[in-house]
Amino acid sequence: MDPLDFLETDELLRFFHARKTEMSCMENPQTFLSQLRDHNLIPEDKYQSIIRMKSKNKIRTGVYDILDWLENKNSEHIQLFWRCVFKDVIMTQYPTIKVLHTSLMDGSFHFDLQLPAKVESEESEERGSSKHSDSEKETKSAKKKRKASSASNCSSGEDQQPGLSVKQNPGQRKKTKKINYSSPRKGEAEEIWTWPLYKSQLPVTCGQEEGTLIRDKLAKGEKCILVDKQWFSPSEFEKFAGKGSSKNWKMSIRCRKTPLGKLIKEGHLKAAAYKNRRKLVKGKQQNEEESEDEDSSMEEQTTGDSTGDEMEGQAELLEVTSDQGKFKVTCGALTGTLHKKRFGSGKCGKSIRTELRWLTPVEFVNVALNQSDATWRKDILYDGKPLSHLIEARVLLIHSLLCKCNLCKPKPEDLDNQKNDDECCICKSEGEEELVECDNCPRSFHQNCHLPRVDDAILRDDGQWMCTFCIFKAIEECRYPDKQRAQAVMSRLISQQLLECQYLLLYLCSADEEQIFATDPGQYLSNYSSIIKTPMWLDKIADKLKREEYQTVSEFVSDVQLIFSNSATYNRNNPEYLEMSKNLKQLFDREFERAFNIQD
């Protein structure tokens, strides 16, 4: 007789309940999930949604959700669950399962399962929701071409800007600063605010920024959205995400694509009145007490370490967003994006990302104007105004000369890290997975996001690694010196044009800044399948390309165009998303002609 027959069902369920987190942290859980699917313990759609995930953090959360579903919806088959996972092939691959098997068989689980009674209060649910996320912080072995993300602390006091998140040594792992949430369950995409897990807080997004909204604080009119240990009011979070011009946070801030205004109107959220604040910058010195008063309706500040760039004459007004993280800047004909978290001073911190590389403000001016003595505060412009305006507004904080952070006193590996992006070029997230750095451009990638996938053997190699973007650019001119006919190109075998197709798909993913077209719309739009009969998204095309399911270039292009036509059909009454798909289609058509040197 099977030893499991001697254990009561409630004992197996209690044991399962206490071990869900451990099982969700198993490495490469696909075999484990396949075993559950083969025994009809989990639905096919839940299985498919997990194996398509790329982020390890999301996979763990997804596995936990499946186990939680199994406990709540399929608990009568708990004995079958343990029997199917306690197979030798499963226990050999997953040491965690082997340990659980030993604990059940020798009875030792009785000594460590003295669980307290379940408490259904808000505090207990908050602790419960954080329990799983804490387990996800376990460290893993490092790989060679990784970035690290250790928050650098500025020693110049509370008013100093934190230094750039860079690695302490080449082998450290890079941990995400973003709050990750699992994909919504099927049929519940529009009702996440009713889940017990989100009784006290909700995941919210605005543009590309993600945060956590605390319900009670919103109801009291306090700063209620937490992002990277910083608190924002809804309007501040809207500005932080670069959507301040809309001045309508109830529509621009969303929970799973649903505006907060709709949740408030339907009674799912309570919101107090928030006062609108307009920050003003004047060219005269103000009291330190006024500069530290966050609730003041205006801030009139200048920095004590500016070097003759103070504004003179009548007060000049400039509306700024002190929590915004990125700024489009220009100098002469050169354009770039200044990243606040990388900014230390004019010479410290490569904080401006151009198309080709990362530069310090001084280097940016030197490249743009070919002047070694240029004054970067005056010559770099943001929104038509000198960069000194952001410094005087204390939006950008210059680190002190005594600062010892990784920006101001960088080690060799810190300087090397500053040459590459901090997030994946494709999925726009840092994640807990390793980021592979291109040795020829500033781009960084997750191994699975890049096409083709970056193998572990390449990471262990001491040689140079170039991404598909750089390889395509290096051989672009010599591949098609003569003009090509579009019809002839479309009929070619994709095996002969694989580089061009990989480049085009990566280009689309990179251009899709808000990841609108990356995943299956049916996961978060409840009525999508009733309108669109043949859904298509970028991740699915990437999977088909990896599995060699396309025979000709035409088949590949047809799927790409299907994304745009589906979007046009579904978003007929949504101008914002319709415009996004049109712009992306124009980019694809242009790059397709350039990639194959198509004749007009």
TrEMBL record:
Keywords: Bromodomain, Metal-binding, Phosphoprotein, Zinc, Zinc-finger. Residues 192-270, 315-397 form the SAND domain. Residues 288-298 have a biased composition (Acidic residues). InterPro entries: AIRE, Bromodomain, Bromodomain-like_sf, HSR_dom, SAND-like_dom_sf, SAND_dom, Sp110/Sp140/Sp140L-like, Znf_FYVE_PHD. GO terms for cellular component: cytoplasm; nucleus. Residues 149-158 have a biased composition (Low complexity). Residues 1-109 form the HSR domain. Residues 162-171 have a biased composition (Polar residues). Residues 120-183, 279-311 are annotated as: Disordered. Residues 126-141 have a biased composition (Basic and acidic residues). GO terms for molecular function: DNA binding; DNA-binding transcription factor activity, RNA polymerase II-specific; translation regulator activity; zinc ion binding. CDD domains: Bromodomain. GO terms for biological process: humoral immune response. Residues 421-473 form the PHD-type domain. Pfam families: Bromodomain, HSR, PHD, SAND. Residues 525-578 form the Bromo domain. The keyword Cytoplasm does not apply. This is SP110 nuclear antigen, tandem duplicate 1. It comes from Cyprinodon variegatus (Sheepshead minnow). The lineage of its organism: Eukaryota, Metazoa, Chordata, Craniata, Vertebrata.
